[in-house]
Amino acid sequence: MPGRRLEWMSWPEIQEAGVQPGSTVVWPFGAVEQHGPHLPVCTDACFAEVVLDAVMARIKPNRPIWRLPLQMIGFSPEHEAFPGTLSLSAELILNMVEQVGNQLSRSGFERLILFNAHGGQISLLQVAARQLRARRPSLGVLPCFLWSGPEGISSLLPEPERYEGLHAGLAETSLMLYLQANQVGNIKQWDGVRDCPTPPLDPPNGWSLEGKVPNAWLTSDISATGVIGDSRQANALLGEQLFNLLVDGWLARFESLLDSSWPPRRIS
After folding, report:
1. Residue 67: CB partners within 8 Å, gap ≥ 6?
2. Where does 155-216 have alpha helices with state H?
3. 77: left (phi over 0), alpha (psi -120 to 50) or beta
4. Which of 77, 98, 117, 205 is deepest in the core (most CB within 10 A)?
5. Is the dihedral of CA 179, 185, 191, 193 positive or negative?
6. How far apart are CA 167 and CA 82, in angstroms?
7. pTM
8. How many whole angstroms separate alpha carbon 166 and alpha carbon 35?
9. Helix count (H) and strand count (E) of the chain?
10. What is d(CA 165, CA 256) in angstroms, rounded to the nearest whole number?
């Protein structure tokens, strides 16, 4: 879709796009990090790219929304014990978001959506967004996470996978089986977080891996395979259902944003 991608546009076309009321740019973020012994290291990047492409394809051509190229390498220090993981520093990503956001704002764009598919950089991109917004008040900055927002996702996942399948588990493996089945290895032999040389220690009472009282865990603390969850029941049908919910959900949110006047004008 060259017409939706800024990198395929000339500077006069970008100038014209930026001054349109409600002009919006989406920047997809992924990661290059281990996803267990059965998924490729580009898994998060693949999800961000494919879901965003599907959403953009369904938006009417006259809508003022465009996208940037995928930022494939992200912030993944929790996975650095596993070969193949590439991670940028937090400082570099903060600086990168600020610089790109500043330049988009100077081109007249009113909104920047950080469309992130990697759970390990949710909080970092929220900080980057708040910092950018403070320095560019006229630019609405919306950091979002692929799996948070669209309704119905959790209802497709059984317990305990719904809350314990944090990485390369049922949801991610099923989605990859639907999108790129030839890139998925033998999932039947892996038992997720239980496949460790010694049983992992549970977090202290009152603490959790994620949630209200999280801790800064490393994947190697709790998994020998890199999987946190259980991928054994993954299937392409579930992946298709997840994909449709993700696309429908983000399409509705993008349309809602385009219909709005966000960001609000500053109170003088």
Report:
1. 4, 5, 6, 25, 26, 27, 28, 52, 56
2. 161-164, 170-179
3. alpha
4. 117
5. negative
6. 14
7. 0.93
8. 11
9. 8, 4
10. 30
Alpha helices per DSSP H over the chain: 11-18, 43-58, 90-106, 122-135, 161-164, 170-179, 219-222, 236-258
- Taken in order of first residue, the domains within the chain and their CATH numbers are 2-258 (3.40.50.10310)
**Token output for 37:** 């012994």
Cα 72 from Cα 96, distance rounded (Å): 13
Give the tens place of pLDDT for each residue, 194-250: 444 444 667 788 888 887 888 898 999 888 889 998 888 999 999 999 999 999 999
What is d(CA 135, CA 130) in angstroms, rounded to the nearest whole number? 9
And the tokens for 35? 């996803």
Pairing of the two strands 111-116 and 65-67: unpaired
Q: Is 92 helix (H, G, I), strand (E, B) or coil?
A: helix
